[in-house]
Amino acid sequence: MNPPRNPPHPTYDPPLEASSAEPIPADTAITRSDDFESPQSSDQDSSAPGRRWLYLILGLLGLGGIAWLLYGRVVAPLTQGGAPPGFGPMRVSLAQPTLRPVQDSTDYVANLGSRKSLQIQPQASGRVSQIYVRPGDRVEANEPLLRLDATEQEAQVAGSQAAINTANAEIAAANAELESARRDLEVLRATQASREADLQFKRQEYDRFRQLQAQGATSLQSLQEKESAWNQARASLAEIKAQISAQAATIARAQANVMRTRQQRETAIAAANQAQAQLKYYTVVAPITGVVGEINAKVGDLVASSTALLDLTQNQMLEVNIDIPQEDAARLALNLPVQLIDNQGKVLKSGQVSFISPNVNPQTQSVQVKANFSNVGGQLRTNQFITARIIWESRRGVLVPTTAISRLAGKNFVFVAQPYGESSCQAEQQGPPPAPDQLVAVQKPVDLGAIVGNAQEVSAGLNPSERIVTSGLLQLQNCAPIQANP
């Protein structure tokens, strides 16, 4: 209630009494009251602006005090984790840390290459007459790709076959001649045996008649006849022996002729085989199972054995090439797990490090690593760039949701839900303490490790059995009362 204003003072002029009046000196000037201003009235007018400033300052101070009171009683508890009187503990979500496998890994950009990528070249020269495939076709080993005009080569094959037939006929004639000579030789040998027996008989007759003639039992003429017969038998035997020798020479010539014709046939067969093999080269086939790439030849093109006809790539087994920075090279080892990752972060293939280059690339200062991957389904392609993840180490770690981690002044914290009576908040409590079983959010510094999806490893500072706060971290302060959401 405003105080009552002071009523104005009435002007009072007392009557002049003659007895008490004193004479006014003659030289005294008489001034009217309305011709001058009283000192009190002048002071009031000069202090009016000062009072207005004073009232303004006092009003601002009052408003500031009210604002400070509201901040301390309502706003500060909300922003710092407390609850204003009458509002109760702050509702938050709680979660338990999980123990899961954690991988210490690094992702690199890698390039896929085929372990078998070929440029198909013909083994013969000629003009392209047919192309059986198109780019992108999958072909099996020994499947025809294209054909060259083989008219001349086919003629050579036919000529070689004719030479074989001629050689076979000559061999047959030579064999027949040889067999005939052998039969004649057998006849001559039989004749020789007969003449040898006849010679022996006539020798015995001559010897017998010589004894008889010596005894006078026969005439000299008879002895001479026996001697003549014996000499004829010897001449006949010598003649047959000469015929046998001549026949043996004939047989030798026949055998040589057979050998010559057989050699001619072998030469003809070799020429035919070579011509036939050369004829096969006029049909270009796939040496491996793979996918046809770019075809550089067209029907009608004249190609040589040095012409690159097409590309053929085998994607069944791919080789990934990874350039590892020199600072990570010390961690490399054979058989380290390697994963290929797609654009969504999913693992496509798994393999192992199979090769580590002994040299550092002088331009990139990196070490090249290779790993092999099966690509039976054809999911990957040669020369494709892909993310390759090298897993340096696998271990079990404590993981928390990334939403449970707060950062302040370069440090990482989590809020752990603990009963007030078991927490360290009693030493920091100001004002009335909560009930001993009241949950409070205790801020704990932690060390972080690898990120696994939407969670992150806590390498130090957190017990897996503790419950952590996962929501409302921006409104929490250390030791603020909390209540778990149902």
TrEMBL record:
Q: Please indicate which superkingdom the organism of origin belongs to.
A: Bacteria
Q: Where is this region: Disordered?
A: 1-48
Q: Where are the transmembrane segments?
A: 53-71
* GO cellular component term, pick one: cell envelope
Comp. bias regions, Low complexity? 38-48
Q: Which residues form the Multidrug resistance protein MdtA-like barrel-sandwich hybrid domain?
A: 119-308
Residues of the Multidrug resistance protein MdtA-like beta-barrel domain: 330-390
Q: Where in the cell is it found?
A: Cell membrane
Please tell me whether the keyword Membrane is annotated for this protein.
Answer: yes
Q: Which Gene3D superfamilies does the record associate with it?
A: 2.40.30.170, 2.40.420.20, 2.40.50.100, 6.10.140.1990
**What SUPFAM superfamilies has UniProt attached to this entry?**
HlyD-like secretion proteins (SSF111369)
The record, for Pfam families, names: Beta-barrel_RND, BSH_RND
Is Heme found in the keyword set? Answer: no
Stretches assigned to coiled coil: 157-191
Query: Could you tell me where the Pro residues compositional bias lies?
Result: 1-13
> Which UniProt keywords are present, listed alphabetically?
Coiled coil, Membrane, Transmembrane, Transmembrane helix
Family according to the record: Belongs to the membrane fusion protein (MFP) (TC 8.A.1) family.
The protein's name is Efflux RND transporter periplasmic adaptor subunit
User: Can you name the source organism?
Assistant: Lyngbya confervoides BDU141951
